[in-house]
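INTERNAL AUDIT FORM
Audit reference: QA-55
Scope: verify that the stored structure record matches its stored sequence.
Auditor: D.O.
Record contents follow.
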Amino acid sequence: KKYVPRWDVGQDNVGVDDITEIIDSPAIKIMARCSNQELNSDQMLRIAQRELAGVATVTHSNPHDSLLEISANGISKGETLSKIAARYGISADETVAFGDNPNDFSMLAWASRSWAMADGHPDAVKHAKFVAEPHEEDGVAKEIEQLLELPE
């Protein structure tokens, strides 16, 4: 089968030969992989964003896995975070976000206090206000300790 679910989410784990068989089914997110890995995730992302512009939101969370995340148009971490924050009366100025890959860019841009991980995707720093130390050096924990003014 050409299209096979990778994770069991309560649906029958059966692939389909033709994507048009399921394209009208309700979906929260579609994951698309370049199985022969001729393209990396960034290359796939550029193509998919061009082809799906105005139809779907396309991003990825791992530059090495050749795996895209395709959601309904306008759905992103940033959009979702802004809606949840608004529901609780929290502004972007009161929000902290950490991210490392393209699926985090909208969230990093929305939050007034946002950190890109030093070892994350090179474009993350374009969307964040600050850069945190790499994951391996506990970058997130160190920034949270400083935000909370905790002793080291």
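Auditor finding: record pair retrieved intact. Helices lie at 41-52, 77-87, 105-110, 124-127, 139-147.
Action required: none
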